[in-house]
Specification:
By secondary structure, the chain is of the alpha+beta class. 35% of the residues lie in helices and 28% in strands. The strands form 2 sheets. It has a 5-stranded antiparallel beta sheet with strand order 3-2-1-5-4, covered by helices on one side. It has a two-stranded antiparallel ribbon with strand order 6-7. Strand 1 and strand 2 form a beta hairpin. It starts with a strand and ends with a strand. The relative contact order is 0.12.
Length: 124
């Protein structure tokens, strides 16, 4: 069994077949616990694995647990970034005075401004 706990969000228990419903008491034998640490060192929570019997994890199992923790942190950061972008996208955008001034200057210019793409095709 495994448990993932996120700071401020509580704990979710899982077995090899998926998430377990309701509050589940952990088995008595904690095998390992890994901090869910971001690249800047902030701990977001923990990932822990349990078993019904006492045993040690192999080095390969510890490495896999660390990789799973890294993946969990990546998902946490991705979801946070998506939530932030959704907030930005929902915010109304008001044109700034600088943009209005730039548009007025361009429209009142007595010269033609040309732009060309990488192929040399010009547009006004």
């Amino acid at each position: 069994m495994a448990a993932i706990e996120l700071n401020g969000c509580g704990e979710t228990w899982c077995s090899s077949t998926g998430a377990l419903p309701g509050p589940v008491l952990p088995p008595h034998n904690l095998l390992a616990r890994v901090a869910l640490r971001t690249g800047d060192g902030e701990v977001q929570g923990t990932l822990a694995v349990y078993d019904t019997r006492v045993r040690d994890l192999t080095e390969q199992q510890r490495l896999v647990l660390e990789l799973l923790a890294e993946q969990a942190v990546s998902q946490i950061e991705l979801n946070a970034r998506i939530a932030g972008l959704e907030l930005l996208a929902a915010a109304p955008v008001a044109p700034s005075a600088d943009v209005a001034l730039a548009q007025a200057l361009i429209e009142s210019a007595s010269v033609v401004i040309y732009h060309s793409n990488m192929s040399g095709n010009r547009s006004t």
